[in-house]
Design brief:
- There is one protein chain.
- By secondary structure, the chain is of the alpha+beta class.
- It folds into 6 domains: 2-59, Helix Hairpins (Orthogonal Bundle); 81-301, DNA ligase/mRNA capping enzyme (D-amino Acid Aminotransferase, Chain A, domain 1, 2-Layer Sandwich), CATH 3.30.470; 307-403, Beta Barrel (OB fold (Dihydrolipoamide Acetyltransferase, E2P)), CATH 2.40.50; 419-491, 5' to 3' exonuclease, C-terminal subdomain (DNA polymerase, domain 1, Orthogonal Bundle), CATH 1.10.150; 496-564, 5' to 3' exonuclease, C-terminal subdomain (DNA polymerase, domain 1, Orthogonal Bundle), CATH 1.10.150; 586-652, BRCT domain (Rossmann fold), CATH 3.40.50.10190.
- It has 25 helices and 22 strands.
- Helix 17 packs across helix 18 (510-520).
């Protein structure tokens, strides 16, 4: 039995290697399935035989309550960026000052999630996220579900290897299609999807996400060059990117960069640039690193891709506050790996600035590599058939006459009973950052509204009374309804700040909702607050204070209904300490802190009475700087703002 067991593992892993690494499958799915079934049966009957490198570990059976932390053997520091040819020539000049002879290796910059893998005697022991560069999350069980990552190497070596886990475009589209059908929030891009998949506490979920990998760095390699090191990783059984190129000089590097700038959309996975490395590893070690980046490598970041298409129409939508938003509808076009058909045009001023006419050829790009954006029209392409767009005078949903916002920029539907406003308000109420009710996504909420199942906030908490109606709808079986009711019930226990954000007080975002919840601790206290009192709170001016007072003056019945339904109206977080080092000070954090993640440091600042901010301005009081701090640090110096490092932060916290 042992002999057959070992033979099955060898057969399955060889088939996996041919399929996932070599992209040259020689075994049929039926045969592979029969081998796996036989292997499972042997391990069930003879559990003492099960090996740590058994392919059954890839099935994904581990469910964890939280991730442990793993310390990397050496820091995973980030690369400096180049954005144009001038930056590349500047990088080359620095190398030229140190060496008369040198060459470069160029690798595609995979847009995924960095990982570090540890092997002992050729067996996979641990897998970790990059984390803060020093420590990462232990995701070993999730790593084992990725079939292109070997559980056992072709040599009994001890090593740490770094690389990128990514989600192929085909897997990304499949995943989002499935989530759309379920009414779940879609992933914005494959990078976020890969990162989220790696950090699932249930490895069964990770397994279904069809992740892939490329490995590219062995910190302790004995090879003389980076190019040889990649070949070594391939020989050991790792999947490496085939588009690696050895180049003699910076001119050849620039040609390589230009080639992939044009060909990036031909790949079955996303890349966001090209990594350029000095090939000789001894030269790499001589060049060393700064506190932030290695001096021997640089990442060229692709410029935002602009694609031409035709603007077919402009259609207005109505938001939960009544704001009318024009949206461009254009011929479907592929931008950075995904097909887009529409983009927001924000307001009338935006349309005028870009001189947009229906029928124009326009340029589309993805802002931040994520959100589709209309860059400009192309007037030289016009043939006279194009039409000016005129913003509507009436709401496209309820036909109410539109009014102007206080800034005179936006058009507003003043009808508080407008169906579109109500639907958007309900969607916002149930959203993840508000009441976090799973199972009430955009499509489902709209369907429930149109069927009069949910027409206001309190209807959500009475939906159990309409269970019979729900059972008659497609996709709503006993289990899905039970899960929905459970999520609704759980939302009653949310802390006050979630409720304040959910109910749609004009001008109140997540940050301000938390400030109000902490200050007043109970919604009754907030209701009693005067406009003058609210204005004394930092970042709440006269307009916002009036908005808060007006809302509660007009929604007393809603609050009573919430209480009668058992919805919590009290703040459940940490109370604010009176720390004079933080009190009422606007604080920005930039770079990576060693002992705090972003959520932890935000909570610490707020608990100590400080005000968290994401951007540096003349109104900023303090900038806390970690590793790899960027332009925010530079701006703080320029404006003469007080700067703390992590040691100073701990001192001010009186740790």
């Amino acid at each position: 039995m042992l002999e057959r067991y070992n033979e099955l593992i060898e057969l399955i892993e060889q088939a996996n290697y041919e399929y996932y690494i070599l992209d040259n499958p020689k075994t049929s799915d039926k045969t592979w399935d029969s081998w796996m079934a036989e292997l499972f049966k042997i391990e069930e009957d003879y559990p003492e035989l099960k090996r740590t490198d058994s392919p059954t570990h890839r099935v994904g059976v581990e469910v964890k309550s939280e991730f442990n932390k793993l310390t990397h053997k050496s820091a995973m520091i980030s690369l400096a960026n180049a954005f144009n040819e001038e930056d590349l020539f500047s990088f080359d000049e620095k190398i030229k000052k140190e060496f008369k002879e040198y060459e470069y290796v160029c690798e595609l910059k995979i847009d995924g999630s960095g990982v570090s893998l540890t092997y002992e005697k050729g067996m996979l022991v641990t897998g970790a996220t990059r984390g803060d560069g020093v420590t990462g999350d232990d995701i070993t069980y999730n790593i084992k579900t990725i079939k292109s990552i070997p559980l056992k190497l072709n040599s009994e070596v001890d090593m740490e290897v770094r690389g990128e886990v990514f989600m192929p475009l085909s897997s990304f589209e499949k995943l989002n299609n499935e989530r759309e059908k379920k009414g779940e929030q879609l992933f914005q891009n494959p990078r976020n999807a890969a990162a989220g998949s790696l950090r699932q506490l249930d490895s069964n979920i990770t397994k279904t996400r069809e992740l892939d990998s490329f490995l590219y760095h062995h910190p302790d390699t004995k090879c003389l060059t980076q190019y040889e090191s990649i070949l070594e990783l391939k020989e050991l059984g790792f999947k490496t990117n085939p588009e690696i190129k050895l180049l003699k000089n910076i001119e050849e590097v620039i040609q390589f960069v230009k080639k992939w700038t044009n060909k990036r959309n031909d790949l079955p996975y996303e890349i966001d640039g090209v990594v350029i490395k000095v090939n000789n590893i001894e030269q790499q070690r001589e060049l060393g690193s700064t506190a932030r980046n290695p001096r021997w490598a640089i990442a060229y970041k692709f410029p935002a891709e602009e694609v031409k298409t035709k603007l077919r129409d402009i259609v207005c939508t109505v938001g939960r506050t009544g704001q009318i938003t024009p949206n461009a509808i254009f011929d479907p076009v592929k931008v950075m790996g995904s097909t887009v058909r529409k983009a927001t045009l924000h307001n009338e001023e935006f349309i005028k600035e870009r001189d947009l006419k229906i029928g124009d050829n326009i340029l589309i790009r993805k802002a931040g590599d994520v959100i589709p954006e209309v860059v400009a029209s192309i007037p030289s392409d016009r043939d006279g058939s194009e039409k000016e767009y005129i913003m509507p005078k009436e709401c496209p949903i309820c036909s109410q006459s539109l009014t102007r916002s206080s800034t005179n920029i936006d058009l507003i539907c003043p009808n508080t009973e407008c169906a579109a406003r109500n639907i958007e308000g309900l969607i916002h109420f149930a959203s993840r950052n508000a009441m976090n009710i799973e199972g009430l996504g955009d499509r489902i909420m709209e369907e429930f509204y149109n069927m009069n199942i949910i027409t206001n906030f309190t209807d959500i908490y009475k939906i159990e009374n309409k269970k019979t109606e729900l059972m008659q709808l497609d996709g709503f079986g006993e289990k899905s309804i039970t899960n929905l009711l459970e999520s609704i019930e759980n939302s009653k226990n949310n802390s006050l700040e979630r409720l304040l954000f959910a109910i749609g007080i004009k001008g109140i975002g997540e940050k301000t909702a938390k400030v109000l919840a902490k200050k007043y601790s109970d919604i009754d206290n907030l209701i009693l607050a005067s406009k003058e009192e609210l204005e004394l709170i930092p970042d709440i001016g006269p307009i916002l204070a009036e908005s808060i007072v007006d809302f509660f003056d007009n929604n007393q019945e809603l609050i009573k209904n919430f209480k009668s339904l058992g919805i919590n109206t009290k703040y459940q977080g940490n109370t604010i300490k009176e720390n004079p080092n933080f009190a009422d000070k606007k604080i920005v954090v930039t770079g990576t802190l060693i002992n705090y993640n972003r959520e932890e440091i935000q909570n610490i600042i707020e608990i100590n009475g400080g005000l968290w901010s994401s951007s540096v301005s003349k109104n900023t009081d303090i900038v806390i700087v970690g590793e790899s701090a960027g332009s925010k640090h530079d701006k703080a110096i320029e404006l003469g703002i007080e700067i703390w490092n992590e040691d100073k932060l701990n001192e001010m916290l009186m740790i």
